[in-house]
Amino acid sequence: MKNFRKKILNNKQLLNVCNAERHKGKKIVTCNGSFDLFHYGHLIFLEYAKKQGDILIVGLNSDSSIKKYKSENRPIIPEKERSQIIAALEIVDYVYIFDETVPMPFIEAVKPDFHANGAEYGEDCIEAETVKKCGGKIYLVPRVAGLSTTELIQKIKKS
Predict the structure, then answer these.
(1) Is pLDDT of 44 > 70?
(2) Is the pLDDT assigned to residue 69 strictly greater than 90?
(3) What CATH number is attached to the domain comprising 51?
(4) 3-state SS string over 96-149?
């Protein structure tokens, strides 16, 4: 297994990888999220996403991004650890950490063939316009009922 930490890309590496993979005729899939307290629902989501193409690039919200859109008390797991957990998965080809609260700049950089999103967000999710503008399609992944980081945190607090 290659060193999974090499799968975590900076801006320049992200662009180079996308160009190289597209040149090889590979279909690129993106998805994004916090992936805080990684759980089975996250794994199933990534597995569904990977099946849509050849290369799966996960856009990971940075710590500062999560604090802005979720809570000052989040994330629970720091971005360095979250990125390595995701990069260590065989189904994930690359990880890119972004500071924005929305993934549109990440999507514009990658120009994916498919962007996977939770079905609960629907076809009109915030990413849809950008994905379509870049020539891609939205792929909705069914949610695993009862599995979310927020629900997991609530369960831990009650125990």
Answers:
(1) yes
(2) no
(3) 3.40.50.620
(4) EEECCCCCHHHHHHHCCCEEEEEHHHCCCCCCHHHHHHCCCEEEEECCCCCCCH
